[in-house]
Amino acid sequence: MIDLSSKRVLVTGGHGFLGGHIVDRLKAAGAREILAPSRSECDLTQAGAAERLFAAYRPEVVIHAAAAVGGIGANQKNPGYFFYANMLMGLELIEATRRHKVEKVVVLGTICSYPRLTPVPFQEVDLWNGYPEEVTAPYGIAKKALLVQCQAYRQQYGLNAIFLLPVNLYGPRDHFDPEDSHVVPAMIRKFVEARARRSDTVVLWGDGTATREFLYVEDAAEGIIRATACYNKPEPVNLGTGVETSIRELAETIAQLTGFQGGIAWDNRRPNGQPRRCLDVSRAEREFGFRATTPLYEGLRSTVEWYHAHRAS
Fold this sequence. Notes:
With 313 residues, this protein is α/β, with parallel strands linked by helices. It has a domain at 4-170 and 214-242 and 275-293: Rossmann fold, CATH 3.40.50. Helix content is 42%, strand content 15%. The protein contains 10 helices and 12 strands. The chain has helices at residues 17-28, 49-57, 72-77, 79-99, 137-157, 183-197, 217-230, 247-258, 282-288, 296-310, and strands at residues 8-12, 33-35, 61-64, 104-108, 161-166, 168-170, 201-205, 211-212, 214-216, 237-239, 245-246, 263-267. Helix 1 (17-28) links the parallel strand 1 (8-12) and strand 2. It is globular, with a radius of gyration of 19 Å. It starts with 7 loop residues before the first strand and ends with a helix.
């Protein structure tokens, strides 16, 4: 077990949604040296950025949370960039951890790496049993390639690299741009604005039948810190709740929490994405004692309240 309070910990993407919560959780765990440069200070897609970062900060533990991400619409618009940016950032960062003899690196993957028709609940052993959902495949494959790099570097160089697979995240401080955000923040904004305009209907993508699993971001940060301290094996680990929710049910819950009383129209010309997503989360509980504790309704309520409080800014 690593005592994080005595380590110099680098969090890439530490000013982002998940990264910011990881930094908060590290502080709560007693970490005294947390390094979280912004993208303007260190853009990991630029040549030599990772090497300069490691030479300047000399981290002992690295949590790689930086990523180019977005919802279905963003993935449709940016497949090439999402592949390139995520592949390049991870590739250079993991190589830098090897060269600088970092004690441990934690790489965050994505549930989009799983094959499109993975049997539910998704088990980590199913990760290579098919091609991912096509809309998000460039992003998912780039992230999955980093798992191979982690395992190869462990085998050849003895690098203690672990790989975690967080499910769909949501919570306070999320990105609420309706064009580029993930499903929860996009829905919250749509319903809040529709209520403010006194609209009769909110139009949502797909037909509502697809299912997803949602993990509150503070729970995700807790799981990541536990794995950083305790998990040291090459096998990837799912991070989630193990609870499957349809997009239709999600929409109805968010409509209720935002006070929207109109109707919901489903635009089935738009893609649903992967038909079903729900994880087997037993490995995380068995290996490092992680179990999510925030029910979806409570997490959504906190997220809606945060959005109302910060909407103007």
